[in-house]
Amino acid sequence: MTTARLTAFLCYRDPDAMVGWITEVLGFHVVRCFRYGDNLAHAELRCGDAVVCVQADDRGYDIPSVKGDCVGAGLYVVVDAAEVSAVHERALAAGTRVLIAPETTAWGNFRVELLDPEGRQWSIGTYLPGQPDL
């Protein structure tokens, strides 16, 4: 397993609930967790080569609102096609807002777009960004 070279960090009002959603719906697993007493201060979650750090929102950050089917920024997680469908099913079961149901884009990405419970957008798909054209 390699160390991730780009890691996202996200601050959430309810970090424990978000760690639960990210693990249960998206299929990440917790690799580290730091608490101050009963409060989650920082958790590191991994899915393949992707790492996301969840932190407590102690400042009341603003999250962009949805316009159409997008918030204007989000996280993209590369998975295989079967996992796109599995994530979609788990998202529906969890009551997650689906912004774009599973589809294949013009550039060949089989993806699903989700809004997490605190309003951040997650794209789960098969496209491999950063690969040179052949």
What is the H/E order? EHEEEEHEEE
Mean pLDDT: 93
* CATH architecture field: Roll
Main sheet strand line-up: 1-4-3-2
Structural class: alpha/beta
CATH class: Alpha Beta
Which range does the strand content fall in?
Answer: 35-45%
Main sheet overview: 4 strands, mixed
Low-confidence stretches: none
Shape: globular
Distance between the termini: 27 Å
The DSSP helix count reads 2
Could you please say which CATH topology applies here?
2,3-Dihydroxybiphenyl 1,2-Dioxygenase, domain 1
| Rg over C-alpha atoms, rounded to the nearest angstrom | 15 Å
Instruction: Please report the total strand number as a whole number.
Output: 8
What number of structural domains do the residues give? 1
Look at the structure and name the CATH superfamily.
Answer: 2,3-Dihydroxybiphenyl 1,2-Dioxygenase, domain 1
Q: How much helix is in the residues?
A: 10-25%
Question: Could you describe the 3D structure shown?
Answer:
The protein has 134 residues and is of the alpha/beta class. The protein has one domain: 2,3-Dihydroxybiphenyl 1,2-Dioxygenase, domain 1, CATH 3.10.180. The chain has 2 helices and 8 strands. The strands form 2 sheets. The chain has a 4-stranded mixed beta sheet, covered by helices on one side. A 4-stranded mixed beta sheet has the order 5-8-7-6, covered by helices on one side.
